Amino acid sequence: MKIQQRMAFHFTYQLIFYALLMVAITLVACILFFQNMTSNEIRRNFPVGVLQQIAQEAHYKDGTIQISPEWDKLIEEKGMWLQVVSAEGEVIYAVNTTPHHTLPASYSIAQLLDIQETRTFGTYAVHTQLNFAFQDPLLYILGYPSPDLDQLVAWFDAYGQHGIVRSEAVSHLDQRLRKTGSYLQVIDPESHIVQGIGDEAYVQKAYRQLDILAIQQSPSNYDTNIVAHRDKLSGMTWILYTPHAAGAPLKHPVMEKATRGLVRITVLILLLALPISIWHGYRYGQPLILFAGWFERMGRGQYDQVLTAKDMRKVFRRNGMMRIRYRLYKEVIESFYQMTHQLAQIEKERERLEKAQAEWMSGISHDLRTPLATIQGYGYMLESLPEQWSQEELRIMGSTIREKGDYMLELISDFSLIHQLKQGDSIMKFREIDLVELVRCSVLKYVNDAMMSEYQFHYVGEDCPLLIQADETWLMRLMDNLLSNAVKHNPPGVIVNVYVGRMNDKACIRVIDNGKGMDEETLHHLFNRYYRGTNSDESTEGSGLGMSIAKTIVEAHSGEIQVKSKVWQGTIIEILLPN
Length: 579
What we know:
This protein is of the alpha+beta class. It is built from 17 helices and 20 strands. It has helices at residues 3-44, 48-57, 69-77, 109-118, 147-159, 170-179, 201-205, 209-217, 253-299, 309-315, 324-327, 330-384, 391-421, 435-447, 472-488, 520-524, 546-556; strands at residues 59-61, 64-66, 81-85, 91-95, 120-121, 124-131, 138-145, 160-161, 164-165, 183-187, 193-198, 224-230, 237-243, 431-434, 456-460, 467-470, 495-503, 506-513, 560-565, 571-578. The strands form six sheets. The chain has a five-stranded antiparallel sheet with strand order 4-3-7-6-5. Strands 15-17-18-20-19 form a five-stranded mixed sheet, covered by helices on one side. Strands 11-10-13-12 form a four-stranded antiparallel sheet, with helices on both faces. The longest helix is centred in the middle third of the chain and has 55 residues, at 330-384. The chain is rod-shaped. It catalyses: ATP + protein L-histidine = ADP + protein N-phospho-L-histidine. The chain crosses the membrane at residues 15-34, 261-282. It is an enzyme of class 2 (transferase). Keywords: ATP-binding, Kinase, Membrane, Nucleotide-binding, Phosphoprotein, Transferase, Transmembrane, Transmembrane helix, Two-component regulatory system.
């Protein structure tokens, strides 16, 4: 896997992890919000709201109904009981009915109608919920003991006469009601208030007919609880108002369980995120610190010390394998090694070139100083007593001064050529020329030179023209350098053969001599302008820049030059130029 892919993978799974973390936190927040809403709704409508939630969440299949155990637990904690009645009147599901022995296993139509009308069953207050979510209708019956209702029935039996409170018992009942802050109201079948006994605060509230039903359905919306008992004989209804005792808010048990689970998951993710974040920071920070150390050492020029001994122990195992936390930067580390190796090589090459340049400058200074000393000496001699010298001596002096001057001019000319060649193609004027004719003329110039009579030049070329795109002036200079080198560095009698033709679809020039050749060291540094392979005795035979200039001219023409030579076996110079 490439470093780009690894980086993308590492940061992608981090992004996914933190995205999941955010989603989990958001879900917890949403569930807490909905739980609060649901809990408030259950509290306002308790116990009716509980029965509605149970009916909505129940699952019914093949005559079997399933309800969350959390609801069963809540019903038992509240001292209630629950029965689910099928369409045939059979109880198919029951919760906490064991302590209540009077509860039947099936219901008749009359019992169900009476429960629906009176909202009571025996001594229990009852709420019902008819559900049509499944193929068959189901009736959910939620019952619970009601001390207020029991008290109301007991008072009816003790103080009631013809459906109202006996006159002699009104005072006693009024005292008992005021102690608990309660109020008893007796209404006739036409809803007219017949009696009102107890705390007059309830009289001031003047509950309307629908308010009475609302208190029964949503008691938490009011500060009053009510229970009612209707006397079938007289048609009178006794309604007992008692203060609403505020307790702990009811919570949706299923939602509460899911919330606890999500909270645990979120806390776990947060606990995992902390060490993972520290681990990632350490993992990505350590290599950066390592790189900073590299840069610092590179700034000090310590290119050969990529890693310190301590760093090596951090990055690599004892078996040489890279540690896991650094494998993400494997390519970077390898590139650093390559770069520092190249910089170290460049630094060594620079030092070598500076040394060679210093040696070359020392040699050039010597080469300039020697002819200048000769010229200066002859000048003093001619200046002091010119009449003492014969004509022949004066001729020798003049010839020597001229030769030394020519050598110095050649040296300065080579310096100028090197400066020009550094400018590249800007000094080249390419046009179509005949390479065969150019080489032939270059060789012919040396053949016809009387001063070269001790050397033999042979030319072999094609009869037809060999046309190439080149700068004629610079190619002439190239041939002069090659032929003059063959003369300068070889003894008289050497044979120089020059061939021109085609080879591998390229123009080819070969200059071959049978002279003294070169050793491996000289051949290796032949094209180095800062290297002089000649000894001090040959210092006046050339500047030492000829082959460097030749190579630069060939490369400026997009060509190649190769030299093969062995000591006392001659030299072969081969040049390939594009057509």
